[in-house]
Amino acid sequence: MTGIGAIIKSFHSDRKSDSAKKTLDERMSVIENDIRHHDKRLDDGDSNFKILDQKIDRNNELLNQLIGEVRAGRK
């Protein structure tokens, strides 16, 4: 291979390498955005679960209070 051929091959290889790196960077960016989106959804779900759990606890307290009042009324 001549010196010029080697230089051309080197440039072509560098362009392919740069293109592959750019494609990989773009894909990684998409994956990172997806991860952030899913993390937010998980955080929102955790928050909603905690709120629901608090409402259940409050309803259980009210139910126990009502049961106590009904039992007291029967005695």
Order of helices and strands: H
Q: Any low-confidence stretches, pLDDT <50, length ≥5? A: none
**Helical segment count:** 1
Total number of beta strands: 0
Strand content: under 5%
Structural class: mainly alpha
Described by strand count, sense and barrel closure, the largest sheet is: none
* Principal-axes shape call: rod-shaped
Radius of gyration, whole Å: 32 Å
Average pLDDT figure:
87
Helix percentage range:
over 70%
Q: How far apart are the termini?
A: 106 Å
Please tag this protein with its features:
75 residues; 96% helix; single chain; mainly alpha
Structure description:
This protein has one helix at residues 3-74. It has 75 residues and is mostly helical.
What is the fold's blueprint, element by element?
Elements: H1 3-74
Task: Please outline what is shown here.
It contains one helix and no strands. With 75 residues, the chain is mainly α.
